[in-house]
What does this fold into?
Amino acid sequence: MLSEPNQTKLTQKMPILTLEEMMSIVGRSLNRVDASDKVTGKAKYTGDLVTPNTLVAKVLHSTIANGVVKSFNLDEAWKVAGVVDIVTCFDVPDIAFPTAGHPWSTVEAYQDIADRKLLNTRVRLYGDDIAAVIAETEIAAQRALKKIEVTYEEYKPLLTIEEALANTEIPIHDEFPTNIVKSHKYEIGNFEEAIKAPNLIKVEGEYETPIVKHCHIEPAISFAYEEAGKIVVVSSTQIPHIVRRVCSQALGLPIGKIRIIKPYIGGGFGNRQDALTEPLNAYLTTRVRGRPVKLEYTREETFAFTRVRHAMHFKITSYLNREGDFVARSVKAYSNQGGYASHAHALVANAINAFRMMYPVGAIKGEAYTVYTNLATAGAMRAYGIPQISFALESHIDDIAKVTGLDPIAIRKRNMMKLGYVDPITTITCHSTGLEECIERGEKYLNYSEKREKYSKQSGAIRRGVGMSIFCYKSCVYPINLETSACRLVLNQDGSAQLQMGATEIGQGADTVFTMMAAETLGFTIDKIHLISRQDTDVTPYDSGAYGSRQTYVGGMSVKKTAEKFKAEILKFAGKLLKRDPWDLDIVENQVVRKNKKEPLISVADVAIEACYSLKESIHIAAEETHHCSDNTYAFGVCFVEIEVDIPLCQIKVVDIINVHDSGKIINLQTATGQVHGGMSMGLGYGLTEYLKFDPKTGRMLNDNLLDYKLMTAIDTPELHADFVMPYDPTGPYGNKALGEPPTIPVAPALRNALLNATGVAVNSNPLNPQKLFYAFKEANLI
Amino acid sequence: MYDFNALYEANTLQEALELKATYPHALLLAGGSDILIKLRDGKYTGCDLISIYTLDELRGVELLDDGTIVIKPLTSFTDVAQNPILLKYVPTLCEAVEQIGAPQVRNIGTIGGNICNGVTSADSATTLKAYDAMLVIESQKGKRILPYLEFNLGPGKVDLKEDEILTAITISKESYNATYGHYIKYAKRKAMDIATLGCSVNVTLSGDKSKIERLRIAFGVAAPIPVRGINTEKETQGHPVNAELLNLIRERVLDDVTPRDSWRASKEFRLHLIQELAVRATREAIIKGGGSIDD
It folds into this structure.
């Protein structure tokens, strides 16, 4: 009976702690591990690494949007001093390859669409890559480009979805004779039966979102050379391992013959979740016997000829009963793909899935089409189709509130996803939710309900309005795509360790949270973790890269698994030294201790030095593990915003704005807050100012620069408020869920709903820019 | 990298005038905030440049004995915005140039460059036109003085001969004395933007503030060049300061402008803005002048 009083004593001294409470590093606000190097200029980016004798390549972009290159006259271009080589679309390997940054599918039906070559004879957008010049200097390359004469066979540019669907005599891609890349449908329950119920209210709406741009600071850039029989490409990419596979496909070379190096990068936001300059550059260096070649896009080229966010059009129909319960809902979506498939249908599919998941009540059906047009190629961009559907759906909820007189928050709360929800199509389960509390905190912060009532009765030129919106977002891409991540830890003689991730730092702070996670699980202090930020596909463990909001969720799992193995290896050796059972040992603040005790038995440094130099039994302690992720969970959040509208000037001023997020346990409050601020800024631009314009005759992008593309400046940005509700998610490695992309989702619809509150004018497309407001206010007889 | 042929650097105004006479096609490089962008775009590929940036004799603001304000063309926007003479007598100009670009652009960009490149959106142009600025233009052959109102010949075209350099911008005392102005830049961002529309108004009120003695109004982006609202000015002369005045301005300004449709803004939207900004700028100018107005 000795054990009983002991147990009691233990319980008194040490109350049972939750997993969350036991964490000592995760959850703290620590500075970024790369902060010092980045602010002092020590951090190296691709452009910093270019060697002095590197050649410069420039791409010749087509000056038509739709047609075929018939011939080139290169005579004058070859005469330019300093030109080393000129490559045209008639010279490159006859291999079509995909560019999307998805893990490769070994099932052919799910593989990305291979629809472009390194340089293209068939021109599918204004600015298509049709030739390239390699020269000793940038000026020589530019001069030669100007002297190339091109003869085209020109077709009518198909710039809208309607035009592309109506003009199929000459399809944009022969393999897609209707210009539809892909379409699909789903139905949950029986929609037609459900709408037969009596006394239903029907609300319909059509909503449209624009083409916008990521606007990362560093333009698209790579440099390529040959070394040790391999092609090496140093590139600003989010996805080094995927780019390696794409380059091997594009050049028809074995994957082991390609090596990709990814240094620090100046942002990505999904644009670099695509092979951009790398495949062509890998080929160009082979044209000059492996001499280094730099291919750096200008800001204008980065705007027009990398990727953009898909413009989408949605038609939503909702049937609800008098109490505000959804009985049946449907969405029909069209997505403008532009000239090449890139990520193609995956985005609009994601969008109409979120339509279902957000309010999983009653019968629901969705239908989506992705259509090729002769516009800029659309690919991944922060939150992958969800800002589009959220603008439509959350605007629609406020339209329902207006028609029915119901409270917009009440409609949402009645119908939104609850804990335990299992999506019938994807099986993704709601393992934790703090959405209701997010709404309550946002409501309270802004005093939304009271203000909404007050502001609905205004007149005069200057008016105020409040708006809100909610969202749900998947933490990774399982089970739609593979989720895998590997990590390596190597012990140094001083008891510190190298942490090497396939998952990439792209400015979002991944390196910092990985460092914290490793330290947490190992019992090390932060300074003992040396994270190797640079990925080199020859040595870095495999990970698909930074996209979705997967790094802390999926990458975090691989850190945890590897750290557990690594720690076990350290304790195994320590056990031998201490003549104790390893299972009874633990590490706390770099010291080996007995489990649940504090007294140090030996430092990790002493264990490490003995392990390395032991004359009896040296061992180089390391661990490498793969986490194959087979779960997923939803993150949630809200935006509440108050605006002031100057009706005669057609201007909106944001008076107050808050995002409240449920991303589970927050690993680092400081960097998480930064993520939210950045996402809100992107959302404000999406809501108020940003959209890409194209010449309706030629298809040329008109505002391909940061003057004409109205990205918000610091002075345009209001004070941004961020708050977190933190349910501990049981599937997240440290209770965490997605955060990287979500902050950008709810802002635009909240702004639109605030305008509706202020003026009664429902603007069903973003952004709410002055000229659009002018026509909307005019139609509403406000001016 | 910039693909130009030659860069000549002048150390004195005299040298600059000589260089301009020798290389008449060469472009004058002041701050470079416009020329370098166009050079990068390929618009001036292979050009010759004459840099006058180091000519301090063309930099600064002076007040002459007769009250004339002399603004030298190389004065940066930052220096114009902070100049005590201008802040005292023509603060509207300071407020206008403070809305150009960002601090970096205002440090390098010059007021002379702003008006010599002849674009309709130039933020300093409307206010200088509204204050009847005069331009001093020199060549090796001599000097001429021209009202700024006659300087713009068309979009991007100004009355500056190949061997000439703008050496001073002047505003007479009669033009700024007891005169109060207001400039509104309407743009899509609060910084780093060009005007969708600019409107500069200044008023001279009667002693009892009840009447308009003189109203001058100028617009940017309301026509191919920065323009004065001549019809509006005539009709408002002597008008009582009241709501009727604002209505009159709202109607009359339409006779003074010829905005065009462009992908940046529609003609219809610009016309609406012209009316709205004219009224708002007038009201502000009157308030600054000590008057009061209800509408």
User: Anything to note?
Assistant: Chain B touches chain A at residues 1, 3, 42, 45, 102, 186, 188-194, 196, 263-266, 268-269, 272-273, 276 (CB under 8 Å). The radius of gyration of chain B is 19 Å. Chain B is about 35% helix and 25% strand.
